[in-house]
Specification:
280 residues, alpha/beta, TIM Barrel, eight-stranded parallel beta sheet, two-stranded antiparallel ribbon, 40% helix, AKR5G, oxidoreductase activity, acting on the CH-OH group of donors, NAD or NADP as acceptor, NADP
Length: 280
């Protein structure tokens, strides 16, 4: 169980990954993302998650460099994730995409590199490329994103190295119980994107009621629920007060009954694309 913002989970290769981080999906390249990254790191966050397709790697990198200098931290103190986009899912193309991401971020290595989506017929070649990068010591950990159980089984069948992380849409309306159980059995760390369902859950009555009981916001209740399930989470925000609020979840614990009430909100409902049926 995570008890502090900087607590880590240990991936199956021994790498320590912060259990909580900042996501920057849909934050445009520019000063906004620089400020968000700097605010997060200044307030104790140690994990930043981006992707090639977000188009903001350059200013995410700038934010990281400025934050390291201002907070007297080293590169090793920060855990940085990026993802290879669908158009680059070939062996050589993925290797090249990794170098492009590094260059944009201004970094010598990534802590975690993920295949963004399971494009049929392409993700296995991309996975071989990730294994190559990992074996060459260019990246500390490798994984996937938006993979269902059958995608994971398909990769594992031929892989030399099992994915260390699977980052998926996960929130109280999409609890992903079967996937969570499968990844636990396999030693793969599950990570939640869109943990707040892009804001759709913030007015939920059950969550509001639970929040009132603990003196916490709905967002804090949901993020705490993730933590107690052992799920790494990366809520996105660009406002400093929200970045601080999102991380203020280590001073309370949801009861088993309240955890079950939140679990029961599941409707298998997505706000993002279906990993079995997307066309990009």
């Amino acid at each position: 169980m995570l008890n502090h913002l900087q607590d880590t989970v240990t991936l199956h290769n021994g790498v320590a990954m912060p259990g909580f981080g900042l996501g920057v999906f849909k934050v445009e390249e520019g000063p906004t993302v620089v400020q968000a990254v700097k605010a997060a790191i200044a307030n104790g966050y140690r994990s930043i998650d981006t992707a090639a397709i977000y188009g903001n790697e350059q200013t995410v990198g700038q934010g990281i460099q400025e934050a390291l200098a201002e907070n007297h931290l080293t590169r090793e103190d920060i855990f940085v994730t990026s993802k290879v986009w669908n158009a680059d899912l070939g062996y050589e193309a993925t290797l090249a995409a990794y170098e492009t991401s590094l260059q944009k971020l201004g970094l010598d290595y990534l802590d975690l590199y993920l295949i963004h989506w399971p494009v049929q017929g392409k993700y296995k070649d991309a996975w071989r490329a990730l294994e190559t990068l990992y074996e060459a010591g260019k990246v500390k950990a490798i994984g996937v994103s938006n993979f269902q159980i059958h995608h994971l089984q398909d990769v594992i069948a031929d892989a030399k190295i099992k994915p260390m992380v699977n980052q998926v849409e996960l929130h109280p309306r999409l609890t992903q119980k079967e996937l969570l159980n499968f990844t636990r059995e396999q030693g793969i760390q599950l990570e939640a994107w869109s943990p707040l369902m892009q804001g759709e859950l913030l007015g939920n009555e059950v969550l509001s009621e639970i929040g009132a009981k603990y003196g916490k916001s709905v967002a804090q209740v949901i993020l705490r629920w993730d933590v107690q399930h052992g799920i790494v989470t990366i809520p996105k925000s660009i406002k400093e007060h929200r970045i601080i609020e999102n991380a203020s979840i280590f001073d309370f614990e949801l009861s088993p009954e309240d955890m079950e009430r939140i679990d029961a909100l599941n409707e298998n409902r997505r706000v993002g694309p279906d990993p079995d049926n997307f066309d990009f």
